[in-house]
């Protein structure tokens, strides 16, 4: 993908994109919207790759790379695409619930980014407005090309 090419997530339905924050060629959604993003991806023919917790405030973006999910690798590559994306959807939704149970997202952002979060909160910003989660998807053709480039296709 070139710098000015839109990411695959741009192919998600308009109502899903309307809920996203798009900066630096990357989409992120509020925590409450991630299950809807996962389901919409499958309906649109995309496989969910997962994502990471982020702080997104007007003058800063930061990633809690340790608070992530990566469900796509759990589905056997030899299954038909439609079966794989539905399987990954189920795995992604399960991983999502486990991730939320394991981590206090607000606490992780507070611990990781106090220098930018505290001034934001002091100016009246709300913590829930700073919590975002990237979610990446891939279509069948790009996934096939990636697998071939990585030498994973036989």
- SS class: alpha+beta
Oligomer: single chain
How would a crystallographer describe the biggest sheet?
6 strands, antiparallel
Helical segment count: 7
Number of strands: 6
Mean pLDDT reading: 94
Global shape:
elongated
User: Terminal Cα separation, in Å?
Assistant: 24 Å
Topology pattern, helix = H, strand = E: HEEHEEHHHHEEH
Ranges where pLDDT stays below 50 over 5 or more residues in a row are none
Strand content: 15-25%
Task: Explain this structure.
By secondary structure, the chain is of the alpha+beta class. The chain is built from seven helices and six strands; from the N terminus they run H-E-E-H-E-E-H-H-H-H-E-E-H.
How do the helices and strands line up, and which of them pair or pack?
Blueprint: H1 14-17, E1 21-23, E2 26-30, H2 34-43, E3 47-57, E4 60-69, H3 81-102, H4 105-112, H5 114-122, H6 127-130, E5 131-134, E6 136-138, H7 140-149
Antiparallel strand pairs: 1-2, 2-5, 3-4, 3-5, 3-6
Helix pairs in contact: 2-3
Keywords:
single chain, 154 residues, six-stranded antiparallel β-sheet, 7 helices, 44% helix
Summarize it.
With 154 residues, the chain is of the alpha+beta class. The protein has 7 helices and 6 strands, in the order H-E-E-H-E-E-H-H-H-H-E-E-H.
């Amino acid at each position: 993908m070139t710098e000015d090419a839109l990411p695959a997530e741009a192919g998600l339905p308009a109502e899903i994109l309307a809920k996203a924050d798009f900066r630096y060629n990357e989409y992120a959604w509020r925590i409450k919207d991630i299950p809807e993003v996962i389901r919409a991806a499958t309906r649109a023919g995309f496989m969910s790759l997962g994502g990471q917790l982020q702080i997104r405030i007007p003058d800063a973006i930061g990633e809690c790379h340790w608070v992530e999910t990566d469900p796509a690798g759990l589905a056997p590559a030899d299954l038909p695409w439609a079966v794989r994306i539905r399987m990954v959807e189920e795995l992604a939704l399960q991983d999502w619930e486990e991730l939320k149970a394991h981590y206090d997202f607000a606490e992780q952002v507070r611990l990781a980014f106090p220098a930018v979060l505290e001034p934001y909160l002091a100016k009246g910003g709300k913590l829930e407005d700073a919590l975002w989660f990237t979610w990446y998807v891939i279509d069948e053709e790009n996934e096939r090309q990636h697998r071939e480039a990585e030498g994973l296709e036989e």
